Recover the amino acids of this structure.
């Protein structure tokens, strides 16, 4: 009998991509939607589908065991602001125990605690990228438009700054203009950061990278159609992402939209790697 993969799912297309890749590899898939607004195709594609609020950690763990899940991956957008927005997160006792045991509520602290609990249950937490390697672009200019010399300089500067905030486990995205930081991503997420920064510096550059000590089991950086839409709305000129370590979701749609609005999209290697 084949293995069963649990897909703890947030918003966006990535959970669907994981389910499809896992099924091709022979896995039975059990998708659990953790927040409202997961992709409509997720329920259609997964062998089994559940919707369980992210705060009901005990129920999530029980469901994984009941479904015979051997391995699990956590994929899709779940912004940390739900911890602070009344009514969205209603934690059960298991969630409260985990949160109360933490020294802080940094992303990595929370995720590592969940990983440890799942591993203690005998459920292996899988590398997020295992079925998504085709989504990670290699180094180069991905858009039709080439960056101007000034945009190249902002991309290099922004890339370095994104690495620095990633090292502090604050976020993965910065918006820069003329080598000045317009916005830094925190709990509000990438799109809100882009909207804020782009409006402060018209023609700004977005930079998104993996953390210096990125754990591939969770929170891999992602760029997609929504990212491009936020850039267009706020007047940004382009984006640089880390080559080979960023998931470019719905690539064809995202690049087509960027090209139609003459945005520049670049995948850059980490010069410190």
């Amino acid at each position: 009998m084949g293995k069963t993969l649990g897909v703890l799912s947030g918003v966006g297309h990535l959970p669907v991509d994981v389910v499809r890749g896992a099924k091709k590899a022979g896995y039975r898939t059990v998708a659990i939607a953790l927040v409202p607004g997961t992709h409509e195709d997720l329920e259609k594609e997964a062998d089994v589908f559940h919707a369980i609020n992210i705060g009901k950690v005990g129920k999530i763990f029980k469901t994984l065991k009941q479904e015979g899940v051997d391995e699990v991956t956590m994929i899709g957008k779940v912004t940390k602001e739900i911890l602070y927005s009344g009514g969205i997160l209603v934690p059960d006792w298991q969630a409260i125990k985990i949160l109360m045991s933490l020294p802080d509520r940094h992303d990595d602290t929370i995720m590592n605690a969940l990983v440890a609990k799942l591993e203690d249950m005998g459920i292996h937490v899988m590398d997020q990228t295992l079925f998504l390697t085709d989504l990670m672009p290699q180094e180069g200019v991905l858009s039709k438009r080439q960056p101007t010399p000034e945009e190249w300089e902002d991309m290099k500067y922004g890339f370095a700054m994104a690495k620095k905030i990633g090292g502090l486990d604050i976020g993965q995205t910065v918006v820069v203009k003329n080598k000045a930081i317009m916005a830094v991503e925190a709990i509000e997420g990438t799109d809100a950061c882009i909207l804020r920064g782009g409006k402060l510096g018209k023609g700004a550059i977005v930079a998104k990278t993996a953390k210096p000590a990125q754990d591939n089991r969770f929170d891999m950086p992602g760029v997609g159609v929504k990212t491009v839409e936020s850039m267009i709305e706020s007047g940004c000129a382009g984006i640089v992402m880390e080559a080979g370590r960023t998931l470019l979701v719905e690539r064809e749609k995202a690049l087509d939209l960027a090209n139609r609005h003459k945005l520049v999209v670049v995948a850059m290697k980490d010069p410190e790697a």
Q: What stands out?
A: The first helix runs from residue 14 to 24. The two ends are 41 Å apart (CA to CA). The chain has nine helices and 13 strands. The chain has a mean pLDDT of 91.
